[in-house]
TrEMBL record:
It comes from Flavobacterium akiainvivens. InterPro entries: DUF1697 (IPR012545). This is DUF1697 domain-containing protein. Pfam families: DUF1697 (PF08002).
Length: 183
């Protein structure tokens, strides 16, 4: 049975779009999703479903969340191959976890491929030493300080690229890949 990762955009952030992961796990299981696992409170769900159309899975999960919680929650559906590619293509770090402390490596998953014009907008308005590189529908970030000190919020990324995005730190990305692999 195919195994997927759902990344939710903007849940449990600053008291908005609250979704308790234990409740979500029960809800998805009741709706026929199998072996549902959640990871931390920011909306990361690994599951199995006898469905190969990821666009349909995305729509079904968005509908389920709206019916249950009343939130329009955009989500990204990835399989192991796609997440492995995202890890392998990171130009700033290898596949090792980042040491404890301030996190500087992030992966922003995008709803489409970044255009050269969008990248130019990111460069134009990046007023710090933060580095970024887009590879297809992934934006890799190497922050000079911390996420709190960076211009690269999801709102900033979306405004400049004209795409939806959701961002995970490097260690979370690696953990999610491990979960997809069943480790």
């Amino acid at each position: 049975m195919p195994k997927y990762l759902a990344l939710f955009r903007a849940v449990n952030v600053s008291g908005h779009n609250i979704i308790k992961m234990d409740h979500l796990k029960k809800l998805m299981t009741a709706e026929g999703y199998q072996n549902v696992q959640t990871y931390i409170q920011s909306g990361n769900v690994v599951f199995e479903k006898d469905e190969t159309d990821k666009a349909k899975l995305k729509r079904d999960i968005e509908t389920l969340l709206y019916k249950e919680y009343g939130h329009d929650v955009f989500n990204f559906i990835l399989d192991e191959t796609e997440l492995q590619k995202a890890v392998d293509n990171n130009p700033f770090t290898g596949p090792e976890p980042e040491p404890s402390g301030v996190k500087k490596y992030f992966v922003a998953f995008l709803s489409g491929d970044a255009t050269p014009q969008g990248n130019d907008q990111l460069k134009k308005y990046n007023r710090s030493d933060d580095e970024f590189k887009t590879v297809d529908n992934i934006l890799y970030l190497k922050l000079s300080q911390s996420a709190a000190d960076s211009k690269f919020s999801n709102s900033f990324i979306e405004g400049k690229l004209g795409l939806k995005s959701t961002t995970r730190n490097w260690n979370t990305t690696l953990k999610l890949l491990e979960m997809l692999k069943g480790n």
